[in-house]
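I am still learning, so would you mind making up any protein sequence you like and the tokens describing how it folds?
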Amino acid sequence: MGTGSVHFSSIDHRDRHERGGARPYASSMVRIDRDVVVVGAGACGLTAANRLREAGASVIVLEARDRVGGRLHTDASSGALLELGGQWVSPDQTALRETLDELGLPTFERYRDGESVYVGPDGTAHRFTGDIFPASPETQAEIERLIEVLDGLTAEIDPDRPWAHPRARELDGITWRAFLEQLSDDDEARANVAMFTAEAMLTKPSHAFSALQSLLMAASAGSFSHLVDADFILDRRVVGGLQQVPLRLAEALGDDVRLSSPVRRIEWSDDGVLVTADGDLEVAARRVVLAVPPNLYDRIDYAPTLPLRRHVLHQHLSLGLVIKIHAVYDEPFWRADGLSGTAFSPYRSVHEAYDNSNHGDPRGVLVGFASDARADRLLALEPEARKAAILDDLASYYGERAKHPTIYVESDWGSEEWTRGAYAASFDMGGLERFGADVRTPVGPIHWASSDLAGAGYQHVDGAIRMGRWVAAEVLQALAPTPA
């Protein structure tokens, strides 16, 4: 161990079993002893594991998938480099930017020169520049007023403690849709403002989550204005794909990252944990970190069972649903037409799209998103009919050439066995104020951390890294010897 490291001795869990534990030690199992076992090899879990190892703790990471990265996945099997999951870096994401610098990963700006496109309620495409959609003067003024009001409310929200706001119960007891209806009687203005946290971020209908949950989303990004500003929130990309972050972090851990090892059971007590995973693997440790989406917590058997409040908390968290569409063309034809590639419409199934062309690749790539009930309707179609409907939406933004990509790929994270939704978990009505203070509270030796539980950087890779750092510090404190 390096200078300044601390040694945390592991407990022999076989002694616990002999004293009357959950079950006798199975000799057929592969037995590993560590100070900490981390479940999930995404950016959060791998950040935590590296921090723990650097401090002198022994660690193993168990990952259910056959790859690292979690909701980050760069794939080139189609013939083009496509980022199937998270991909963007914004100026406020300081934890992610620090990590990129540490790992030596360069970034490049998203293409944004030219005009954007907005399709209004009548189906007409309008070109515009700036952040405010080209509606009637009255609606544009109302959008600007709503953003100003929401910026003021957002400034009052502590992203790490939104439940502490004096109006938390009130704001968590009204839907995002109903809250906006209280603020404005302009349907088009409300639809456009609602989209930035509903379809674009939480990927749920605006009647399915609270105003407080929406304000948390804005506060985690610094302001509501940041969510409206695509040039801010979708600023840069990593050359070669953002999955390189977890890939590099995993390289530093070597054989202590075990793939294709879904965790099935956690036996826990004040002494520590015994974690059972596929492959006849058992890990005895003093602490376990669950660095996976909250909707996967209950796929693990706990002995003894978790406290009742914790079970109920889990039932109030769910992920949204989104289809990410990748369309590759011989060239970025929209640029010659004076378009930036940025497009929006709360009235189309593909409610937003961007120029997603890769660094150093002359081909043009468009990326689009269809979320919540829009995704429901599209996923009910046969694949070819769904593709046709999606390309029709792209054509409404960019013209007929958009209907003829050379490569077409859909990312549906709801169908991923070890994710089952996107982009992140959010509470149902009333859940954030009721349970929010407990989402990161350990249960005995079990710790919880993921981008879903972050304050600043919530549901982004930046939040995953912040949570990885935070939970590592929490675990190290728990492992530290008690002063005499």
Residues 137-155 form the longest helix (19 residues).
